[in-house]
Amino acid sequence: MASRAKAILYIFLHMISLLSISQAEHHPSLLTLFGRCNFDKIFQFGDSISDTGNFLVENPLDRSGRLPYGVSNSNTPTGRYCDGLLMIDYVASAAGLPLLNPYEDTNADFTYGINFAVVGATALSVETLARKNIFGARTNSTLDVQLSWMSRYLSSYCKSEADCREKLKNSLFFMGEIGGNEFNYAFFGGMSIEEAKNLVPEVVQTIMNATREIIKLGARNIVIPGNFPIGCLPSYLTTFRANSSFDLNHCLRDYNQLSVYYNLQLRVAIVKLQLENPSVAIVYGDLYFAFQRLFSPTIHPACCGTGGDYNFGFTMFCGNAGVPVCSNPDRYVNWDGLHLTQQAYKYIAEWLILNISPMLHCPAS
Ligand SMILES: *[C@@H]1O[C@H](CO)[C@@H](O)[C@H](O)[C@H]1NC(C)=O
Ligand SMILES: *[C@@H]1O[C@H](CO)[C@@H](O)[C@H](O)[C@H]1NC(C)=O
Ligand SMILES: *[C@@H]1O[C@H](CO)[C@@H](O)[C@H](O)[C@H]1NC(C)=O
């Protein structure tokens, strides 16, 4: 009881001070930047950071289909784990394309690309995770399954390997963010940081293998985002604050160091893969840095609940009865403990687009 009261006080104190993310610069020239590139399709592989409705098809009663999810997007829940739009939505808009439809929506139009991302998805297969004693995955639609969806789509979309390559040459691919859930499941299942660190090489290699596969299919522009500083997520801060010291941003130092380590391995692997494939642009998406830019002060409350908080037996999940929702999500970085707000995603997407655009092989207009 005492620790529960302490945790409530902790959350309350942090709720008082709002993050000031309105200071991030705005870049009105995005449309021209990406527009000049003339990408005709976008394909997204990933998890809840990018899912625009697949998981909701798999689980029609999921919380992402109910308010307050979607509250900032005309009060319309869509399956996005957010109060509104996600990074990929801003990327698609900046490319002058409509928002990507989820693959599992059988009635959807895929003229401008497909979103294969699924909430809870991992890079490693569920069987591989089980062998490592990691359980509790929210979906079986892991990266290999998402790749099989891509192949199935291509089998009707193009006639031969050469035809597919021709048809995909002006497409933009997002391979992730994926691979973050491995660590969520591991940590919330009680794994230590040292144990979780051992997962890194296989997660990175799995993502590289998936990237090789889409290159073989014809991808010529691929963005591979890394992980966020997980030690700054309210869900981690409330559950694991006893397991780590704080860094200067008042985030959990050891958990952030795991993200740094993982991102570094990912970048090294990307450089190698880039050298093997000089005609393809393989670009790292630095979500860690983009996220950190949003912090000036040292406070990280979520707008809605605290997310997977084991101290509360999950009762603090956004959307559960009695869990408070802030009235001004635009002033928060974090939405529900694990996922960011629309406003945060917008700023991060804008930074990401500016950062990656010079490295992409722009299709000529
Ligand atoms: C994943 O597949 C296994 C085996 O078919 C099944 O038992 C499990 O319920 C599935 N998990 C989810 C989240 O759908
Ligand atoms: C984290 O700290 C809690 C106590 O607050 C402890 O019960 C738990 O075992 C620790 N977990 C890890 C992975 O070190
Ligand atoms: C990646 O692909 C290589 C070559 O096919 C294979 O040997 C390796 O086991 C794969 N790695 C993972 C983690 O799947």
From TrEMBL:
The keyword Kinase does not apply. GO terms for molecular function: hydrolase activity, acting on ester bonds. The keyword Metal-binding does not apply. It comes from the Eukaryota. Keywords: Glycoprotein, Hydrolase, Signal. Pfam families: Lipase_GDSL (PF00657). InterPro entries: GDSL, SGNH_hydro_sf, SGNH_plant_lipase-like. Residues 1-24 form the signal peptide. Belongs to the 'GDSL' lipolytic enzyme family. This is Uncharacterized protein. It comes from Daucus carota subsp. sativus (Carrot).
